[in-house]
Amino acid sequence: MAKLNKDILFLIFEELQENSKSLFSCLMVNRFWCETVVPILWRNPWCYKGINYRNKNSLFIIISHYLIDDIKEFITIQRIQLPSYSNQSLLFDYLSFCRSINVDTINNIISIGSSLPYNQFFMQQEFYSLFMRKCPELKYFDMKSIKHQIFYFPEAMVRLESLCELQCDTIIDSSYFYGLSQLCQYIQRLLIINNDSKPNHGIIKLIEVQKKLKHFEWDDDFDDDFTDYDPYEELILTLEKKAESLNYLRIIFLYSYDYDHILLQDILSKFNKLKVLIIGDYTPFNEEQLEKLKIQVYCKLEVLNIEQNKLSVISSIIENSGGCLKKVLFSPYNIKCERFNFNEDSLINFIRKIYENCPSIEYLSIAFSPLKEHFIELEKLLKICKNLKSLLLVVIFDNEKDTYENSLKNGEELLNILIRSAPTNFKEIRFCHRFKFSLEILEEFLEKWRGRHAISLFTTEYLGIYKELTNKYKRDGVIKEYKYLPYVDLTEYIMEVCY
Hints:
Blueprint: H1 6-15, H2 20-26, H3 31-41, H4 57-65, H5 69-77, E1 100-102, H6 103-110, H7 117-134, E2 140-142, H8 156-160, E3 165-169, H9 174-181, E4 189-194, H10 201-208, E5 215-220, H11 233-240, E6 248-252, H12 264-268, E7 276-279, H13 287-294, E8 303-306, H14 311-320, E9 327-328, H15 345-357, E10 363-368, H16 372-384, E11 390-395, H17 404-421, E12 428-432, H18 439-449, E13 455-459, H19 467-475, E14 479-484, H20 489-498
Parallel strand pairs: 1-2, 2-3, 3-4, 4-5, 5-6, 6-7, 7-8, 8-9, 9-10, 10-11, 11-12, 12-13, 13-14
């Protein structure tokens, strides 16, 4: 490894750019490795998980170094604390590698120098000015909570026209987005947090002018309980014009409207190039819209996550897909099925649609009734879907059969099926609701699992009696992770897998 040339090392480090721990370790190998990895780390230095940016003096030192002497003198007069190392030379021209701005993170770093609002505002302006001057091009911009109209900086036009990804919120005044729309017209990924039920016309204008938009996310996050007008019509009409370019669509609306104008469902049929479709659990469709969903055809779809809808609808979309689906996800608690109809065909049909139409499936959520026919179909799915890695499984009982003895019996049957038929790449199962195992049966399962991929086991029921047993098999490398996750974490899992 030490003798690899710079181009090969760079390609290797590129593959590790999401793994901050490994990249930071590479810095310490030798100077050659350090010179190769620093440009990758500084491309987007704000994105690394596990870093407490509020306490990262090193970033404050580096950025402060670039301030001109006059600004440093003014800062000192204002009693803003600059690091003593800010006048020393740097090993690299770090900001020349940077391609991103994250407003919230930069604000946290600036708070190291002063807690006074005026001082922080001034420092923010100087830091943004630095980035506009020093970054050769800007690719990623997270502007949530921004207070400065940076498009007025002299270099803004050159920097912002190269922007590929923008994250923002609608609490920012419309005029800000009107300014951005003059400069940023080639955004490919646009992620919006909607903080207000009232439409932000500047956001709509920004979406409208985009010429290469591929990835769009809209997430409502406000507390209004009611509005007497539709806050989404203008957005939906604008998105419709981007149907030919979008391949990723994630929408979570807080309100659902049945007005005569165009609704979300009426335009979904036009998004025939989608690879990812995520409709959040605050966006239920009415019966007429559900019928339309059943006949949707998405030939390139790879990720499907539609909440608050019937299994029959999801089954129909799966059947009409092009066989490319890799992730079919939903919170099984949200599936609208009658509890006492689980012995009918809806669940069996859903499982069959998966193994008949999704040969490449990797991540799957299933609402499951512990009947003999369902166990048979589940085992067929495991045998046919060779790429399956993760299964989120909810068992739903008829109340009369919901007994401790039945839970143990069904848990044993499920573990036996996994031993017999789980594909080679299978490495994670999440038991959500009413799965129980005796210590003897679980130990037998783990013994038989030896030699396979280390498995992760998650449960929504606290099962502390297994702690000693699972710790033993974690030490042996049979279990990768064993964790109790409350119900609320199901949503986090789904979003983690979707990304």
